[in-house]
Design goal:
Elements lengths: L1 H27 L9 H32 L5 H30 L3 E2 L9 E7 L3 E7 L13 H13 L6 H10 L3 H7 L6 H15 L2 H13 L10 H20 L8 H11 L2 H10 L8 H22 L5 E8 L6 E8 L2
Antiparallel strand pairs: 1-2, 2-3, 4-5
Helix pairs in contact: 1-2, 1-3, 2-3, 3-5, 5-7, 8-9, 9-12
Pfam families: DUF1759
InterPro entries: DUF1759
């Protein structure tokens, strides 16, 4: 029943995705005219690109959910079908990016992840053309998640905002290119001008860059970390550890001491651990000792690394481990065991 629901959802998403691709192709072919200015086309392309990113991400997410539910015999055909839509979306996204750059008469950046070298060529289109080799730019699109704002702004500031070879209008165009979702909506009403670029930066910082909001966002993510029910689920435990470590380090970079939230967070994290690990941690912890999130994270790290090392030593030819259940001939129930996969 759930698989059928997912497939119907994906069917609707694919129809919407295909219609959006058609709309993009139509817009790309429009000619600049008296009633359709370059600025109007640029705004339309930026909006279409943002929508394309959201639709493609949603489609990929649904594809992954379907793949978890289908039979193994159906996997090859399923992946081929999913990749076809994904490739179309990526291809049109590249075309959108190129035309956006041409309309702005601004630096064109090759962001192809399959580049043969480790640099991107930036071409400055002014009175003369210059070719400069710079380190590869990797600015992730910011969709409005406050916990990602500092990473986005630090990358954007170095690559674009402090680039003296760019005009403010060019910087503003770059800014809109790297925004999506509610972040793009926040500045979509600003027309391209020097003054509006400054106003947009101020607005984004006030809305998404406030320290208190960013701290709350990181804490919220810590409280919502997915539970891991089985200590045999090494992949899940590794994912949990990485997520906790990332959020805690982000809080530390904001000047938030772990002692200020350890007593709140530790019981929540312990509830999300498998019962066996929860018991092991409490067994080694002194009864009169206050919770320390640093100690808990270190405990989880050691448990994960020990399990990963044990599995690797048991079967060094297989580095990927998945959890599965099998019927024990001497037991009526299911038991969790490790399953090795070369995929």
């Amino acid at each position: 029943m759930e698989l059928e629901r997912l497939k119907e959802k994906r069917k609707g998403l694919r129809i919407s995705f295909t219609k959006h691709l058609t709309k993009i192709e139509t817009t790309l072919g429009k000619e600049i005219a008296a009633g359709y200015t370059k600025e109007a086309k640029l705004d339309e392309l930026l909006s279409l690109k943002s929508q394309l990113t959201e639709k493609l991400n949603e489609l990929i997410k649904t594809d992954e959910s379907v793949q978890l539910k289908i039979e193994i015999s159906e996997m090859a055909a399923e992946i081929a079908s999913s990749e076809e839509y994904k490739d179309k979306g990526i291809d049109l996204k590249s075309k959108l990016q190129r035309q956006i750059e041409l309309l702005c008469d601004r630096p064109q950046i090759n962001t192809n992840s399959q580049s043969t070298d480790n640099t991107d060529t930036i071409i400055l289109s002014r009175n003369e053309t210059k070719s400069v080799k710079l380190p590869k730019l990797n600015i992730q699109t910011f969709h409005g998640d406050c916990s990602h704002f500092l990473d986005f702004w630090n990358s954007f500031e170095v690559a674009i905002h402090k680039n003296d070879s760019l005009t403010k209008i060019e910087k503003f165009t770059y800014l809109k290119t790297y925004l999506g979702g509610i972040a793009l909506n926040a500045v979509s009403g600003f027309s391209l001008s020097d003054q509006n670029y400054d106003a947009s930066i101020k607005l984004l910082k006030e809305r998404f860059g406030r320290t208190d909001i960013i701290i709350s966002s990181h804490m919220h993510k810590l409280l919502l970390i997915d539970s891991v029910k089985s200590c045999f689920n090494v992949t899940g435990l590794r994912k949990m550890y990485d997520a906790i470590e990332t959020q805690i380090r982000s809080l530390q970079s904001l000047g938030v001491a772990t002692g200020t939230y350890s007593n709140l967070l530790c019981p929540v994290i312990l509830q999300k651990l498998p019962e066996e690990l929860n018991l092991n941690y409490n067994r080694q912890r002194k009864t009169d000792e206050l919770f320390d999130i640093t100690n808990l994270v270190e405990f989880i790290r050691k448990e994960v690394e020990c399990r990963e090392a044990s599995l690797l030593l048991a079967n060094p030819k297989n580095s990927n481990v998945k959890e599965y259940s099998f019927r024990n001939k001497t037991d009526q129930g299911y038991q969790n065991r490790y399953h090795y996969s070369n995929t």
